[in-house]
Amino acid sequence: MATTLKRTQMYFPDDMLRQIRQLADNEHLSIAEIVRTAVGDFLEKKKKKSVDWDNDPLWGIVGQAASEDGDLSVNHDDYLYGGKL
Fold first, then answer.
1. Where are the beta strands (DSSP E) in 1-85?
2. Does residue 85 carry a pLDDT above 60?
3. Which of 12, 47, 74, 84 would be 17's cystine partner, CB 3.0–4.6 Å?
4. Cα gap 28→2, rounded to integer Å
């Protein structure tokens, strides 16, 4: 299926636009293709950074251990370090 491209207008600082033009010339690509690639890479990176907590394997160990004390989550410093800090 063909992708429909939409026109948009963007503003770049002079030095950044100069670098983009140089890269486009060197790679024999359009400025638009350079920008689309950069934005696509940015979006993929952001997607990978988001954490899927519902499928995190660490949640599989929650509740696997038990304690006779029952208050470890509240008083763990007392048990680890021997008293209130």
1. none
2. no
3. 12
4. 23
> What CA–CA distance (Å, rounded) separates 57 from 85?
33
| Average pLDDT of the residues in 9-22 | 97
Q: What is the arithmetic mean of pLDDT over 10-20?
A: 97
Give the amino acid at 23. L
Measured between alpha carbons, how far apart are the two ends of the chain, in Å?
Answer: 63
Model confidence, pTM: 0.55
C-alpha–C-alpha distance, residues 83 and 51, integer Å: 36
Q: Rounded distance, CA 77 to CA 19, Å?
A: 54
Alpha carbon distance 25, 65 (integer Å): 61
Cα–Cα distance measured from residue 24 to residue 81, given in angstroms and rounded to the nearest whole number:
60
